[in-house]
Amino acid sequence: MSIELKNVTKQFGEVPAVHNVSFSVREGELMALLGPSGGGKTTVLRMIAGLEMPTAGDVYIRGRRVNDVPVQQRNIGFVFQNYALFKHMSVAKNIAFGLKIKGWKRADAGSRVAELVKLFGLEDLESRYPHQLSGGQRQRVAIARALAPKPSVLLLDEPSMGLAPLMVKEVFTEILRLKDVGVTVLIVEQNAVATLQVADRAYVIETGEIILEGLAADLMRHPEVKRAYLGKGYKEVWE
């Protein structure tokens, strides 16, 4: 397994944000963790990344228990809600940033950036700055930057947050391209309509507990998912 959580609990003081959660993500899979705001999904993502420590239970990445492993040693790619691109850096320099931090040789870093620029169709955008890009283009740059150091897994935190419906479709179309890259992806999202269009499997988490799991296509038809999530915006864009 690429990612595995075993009986993971996270408490903030006396408040249990996540309770006894277990799930796994297979190698090369695009998996979604769905649920309402405050349901615990982002806390789960942060524990996988190493930004939060579990109160109980274990987190594994490629079979290695990482509870006590620092963020920088987990080999995780993380794309934040707002993409967190550096405004003063060009597309090429944004993508190269992690490679510079990790001490890649300039020639190797240049080759890796060129590879990702071509892979994500950014050839004519290398010298542009984030404010000159569309939402989908910024997402491509953020994903390319996260993938540059060749992480074991890629974590996407609420990629549809604050976006208009048509931009959501553009962003998730870019996410779908990750299946051609072969990287393991975990998406945390509230927007089930868009996410289930691209995911292989999904888990639904509410009040800190997994309540549903299954193939994305099956969950699209599940009456509880349809009632709770599929009516909440964006649906017309995908029909």
Any overview of this molecule?
This protein has 239 residues and is of the alpha/beta class. Helices cover 34% and strands 26% of the residues. The chain has helices at residues 41-49, 91-101, 106-119, 135-147, 165-176, 192-198, 216-221, 223-228, 235-238; strands spanning 3-12, 15-25, 30-34, 56-61, 64-65, 76-79, 153-157, 184-189, 201-206, 209-215. The radius of gyration is 18 Å and the shape is globular.
Shape estimate: globular
Q: Give the helix proportion (percent range).
A: 25-40%
Q: What is the averaged pLDDT score? A: 89
Structural class: alpha/beta
Q: Quick one: CATH superfamily of the largest domain?
A: P-loop containing nucleotide triphosphate hydrolases
In CATH's first tier, which class of the largest domain applies?
Alpha Beta
Please tell me the total number of domains: 2
Q: Strand order across the biggest sheet? A: 6-7-8-3-9-10
CA-based gyration radius: 18 Å
CATH architecture of the largest domain: 3-Layer(aba) Sandwich
Q: Termini, distance in Å? A: 34 Å
The proportion of residues in beta strands is: 25-35%
- Give the topology string: H per helix, E per strand: EEEHEEEHHHEHEHEEHHH
Low-confidence stretches: 233-239
CATH topology of the largest domain: Rossmann fold
